[in-house]
Amino acid sequence: MLTVLVGGLSVSSGAESVRAQQWLRGNTHTHTANSDGDSPPDTVVRWYRDAGYDFLFVTDHERITDPAPLNARFGVPGRFLLIAGEEVTQLVADSTHPDRRRQAHVNALGLTRVVTRLGERGIVQGISLADAYARNIAEIRAAGGIAQVNHPNFRWSVRLDDLTALPDSTLFEIWNAHTGVNNAGGVDAAGRVAPSAEALWDSLLTRGKVVFAVADDDSHSFRASDADSYALTRPGRAWIVLRADTLTDSAILGALRRGDFYASTGVTLSELAVTDRAITVAISPVNDSRYTIEFIGSGGRVLATVHDRRASYTIRGGEGYVRVRVSDSNGWMAWTQATRMR
Ligand SMILES: [Zn+2]
Ligand SMILES: [Zn+2]
Predict the structure, then answer these.
(1) In the chain, N or C terminus with fewer CB closer than 10 Å?
(2) Distance, CA 31 to ligand 2 centroid (Å)?
(3) What domains, with CATH codes, occur in the chain?
């Protein structure tokens, strides 16, 4: 008999009890003027609250923007919650890279004290990128936080080998809405291929890693006056939707640790049900958009494609894992976590 894992969590109670919980929308990657964002925390937090988000992590570089006074001003019990975060902005010296360094940025979500990056001005010498990830993720966990590996293709820094030792239940940014992060991967003039962030995720899942996909804003720009920049980096373009029974720090962080969420750039799911026999998704349609639902297994192989607003996949048992990707006719996407068969 199959044991089905939803993210990292074994589900034995069927879909009904899961569906009774709330769907909550949030952003896990946000900057304010406390680091390199263009607006003070008040402006940033108000923007997300007024845009209808349920929760927000402000993740300024190398510091925690204190959520307490911001929650006192902008928090709404049961409707909007700010949770502590930090982006640990690690650079690793590498004489073979054109920049002479590679970037290994990791968000810390829900941490209780600042995590200090390694090295002078954040540039550590003489250790591998994988070791830098291992150290910083261990520090983030020791500080009570959840680690999220950010934008692997930023400055073409991160390779699959750097990621294969990530601890289970790490979050992984497969879509970052900031400009210049190369989500889709690319090929250089010498023919070297850098896979998309989504393909890197499939490679990790294929190796048996329990890594959860995130889409987020990495927002820096809240001033409409800077029109060109704003068009590229404005907030509200990528998020996650998770399931929790209440809007509290512990409920949100618990759902993140379990992988009980999906990632989106605009597609909303009205149903996501996983049993030991089938995975079912349904979409809340927008206007006359058309939808493609793909069920994807080990190696990134497409197991089934359905052109409809609802689809079910019957689990056969040899897929390794099954995840769902939804694409709409306007380019918006949603990605569920992988359901793993053991
Ligand atoms: Zn970053
Ligand atoms: Zn960032």
Answers:
(1) N
(2) 6
(3) 21-265 (3.20.20.140)
**Adjacent-strand bridge partners of 217:** none
Ligand lying closest to the C-alpha of residue 91: 1
> Which ligand is closest to the CA of 37, given by its number?
2
**Distance between alpha carbon 130 and the CA centroid of its chain, in Å?**
19
Unique residue bearing structure tokens 């402006």:
43
Rounded alpha-carbon distances, angstroms, from residue 283 to 25, 139, 237, 244, 245: 16, 39, 18, 20, 22
Please tell me the distance between residue 176's alpha carbon and the centre of ligand 1 in angstroms: 10
**DSSP class per residue in 271-320:** EEEE-SSEEEEEEE--TT--EEEEEEEGGGEEEEEE-SSEEEEE--S-SS
> CB–CB of 175/264 below 8 Å?
no
Neighbours of ion ligand 2 (CB under 5 A): 87, 218
Task: Report residue 263 as tokens.
Answer: 């990632």
Rounded to the nearest angstrom, the distance between the alpha carbon of 30 and the centre of ligand 1 is: 10
| Average confidence (pLDDT) per 10 residues, the chain, 342 residues | 38 43 96 96 98 98 98 97 98 97 98 98 97 98 98 98 97 96 97 97 97 97 75 87 97 98 98 94 97 98 98 96 98 96 71
Instruction: Indicate the helix (H) or strand (E) that contains 227.
Output: helix 227-233
